[in-house]
Structure formats: structure tokens, C-alpha cells
Amino acid sequence: MIKPWIRTFSTSSSLLRAGYSSVEPVHHLVKVNKAALSPRYEEVLIPKDDIRSLGFKPTEFEQDRVKEHYQNTLQSDLLLALYEHDAQTIEGQKRRRWEPDSPYALYRHLRKARHVNRPQRDIHPIGPENVPQLTGIAISLYSKEIVQEPLWNIAARLQLAQLTNIKPKQLKNKVNYQAWKLRRGKKCGAKVMLTGQEMSRFLTTLTELVLPRIRTFKGIKETSGDRNGNISLGLEAADVKFFPEIEHFQDLYPKTFGFHVTFKTTARTDEAAKALLSSFGLPFYDPKAKENK
Fold it and tell me: What are the residue boundaries of the Large ribosomal subunit protein uL5 C-terminal domain, all occurrences included (predicted)?
């Protein structure tokens, strides 16, 4: 005789429940190719740009003049200029914990840092292992005309692609703004992140061909910087026409758009970042100097 199933709340009912584990389940989130982990396939894991690879394909066809100039000259000069004897690490303002006496502090977010809007990084003494260097150049193009006329979005993206040789990423509005008739998700511009050889080419073109021809350009303002070693520069639509990629093909680009250029460095302070960029040929000026005179 088969007894009907009866739901019980005894100790034996816990055996039928699913187990609970305090370890985060990552086995179904991360895909692991176990066959590639075998020592027999070590040659397959070697990247294609490595000369040891069977399918070697060279990716560098020319010398990087900016990179060689930094390694041969600037790196040692910056170490000599920025090195300080007996320097110690300066701790930045971090997020603070709540007082343990409060019963609501268990799962509460940490408090904001003191006197700053965002947490700061620690400033380590500059040595041979952390000399400031340029890691990337971010170019962002945002125009009100693109929002009003969607066809200009194609021209703006083609302009960045022509200047950087990289396919730009599409920018879309994140909030609604009634004054400009902006809606969330509407296309408004493009952005590009330059690294490696493309970064060196753009920096050389900017410092040697474009900025010297701009009559109104006095330099980058001393107040530019985000206190984390990133310096920004703005170019207007008329300044973009001095790029040789645009100047020799003005019939294809009857309308140009200005954009912002952000130099990303490994420097911990803006002063070290300015010293690095000035060595590459970017001048700086103080807008308040003439006013004081």
C-alpha cells in the first residue's frame, strides 16, 4: 500500500530542501575552456603578435617616435625633476565608516570623504618604478546641433574616424533636458579612446601641426585638471580645420565640430601631469597673471 505524500515540518523535512552555500556561485558565470588549460596546448595560448606563436602576424610596422623619446630622454629627466628625498606616502581622503554604535550602520553605504566630492588616491613618492607617463588620450565630441539635426551625427563620427583612424563609439543622452529638447537615449555625439601608436600619431599632429597654427591659442590653462593626473583641452570647430586629414579634404567636410581632448596619465597630482605634458610640447599659461598686472 502506497501512503500518500504528507508535508511535514519535522527535522527530516530539511533533507528535502535545497542547500545554502556562503560561496558566491561563479561556476556558471565564468566559462572555462578546460581543454585549453592542458599543457599540451601552451602554444595555442600564445598571442598572435608574439614571435613564438605559430601563426605570428606582426602588428608594429614602424617605430613609435613619441615612445622612444619618452624612454630615452623624458623618463630620466622627469625622475630627476620630480624626485624628493625622504618623501613619504600621502594618504588621500577615503570613504569613512559609520559609528559602530548606530544600529543602522551594518548594511549602510560608507560616508563620503572629507572636504572632497569623491575619494582620492594615495600619493606615493616618485621613484624609478612609477615615473609619470601618458597612457591614453580620450576624445569626446558633444554638439547641440547633432541633437537638433540627426544627420550631423554621421558627419561627426566620420570626422573622429578620419582624425584618429579608430571607429568612434556612439554617445547617447542619459537624462532628459527640456531646454535643448533632449530625450534620454537620443544620439548626441561620439567618443574615441586612443592608446599606443594611434595616441602617438595624434599627439604629434596636435603639437606640431595644429596648435602652432591657432593664433588665439595661448596654452592649456593652469586650472585644468581633475586632481588625479588627467588634463583636458578644448578645440573649437574652426581649429579642427588645421588637421591635415581635414584641411586637404575640405570638400568632404564642409562642417566641422569641436571636441574635448583629455590626456590620461599615471601621475598622482596635476603638477606632475603638467610637467609630463609640457615635455611633449604642450604649453601652459595662467589666465589670472595678466589680470593681476
Answer: 187-284
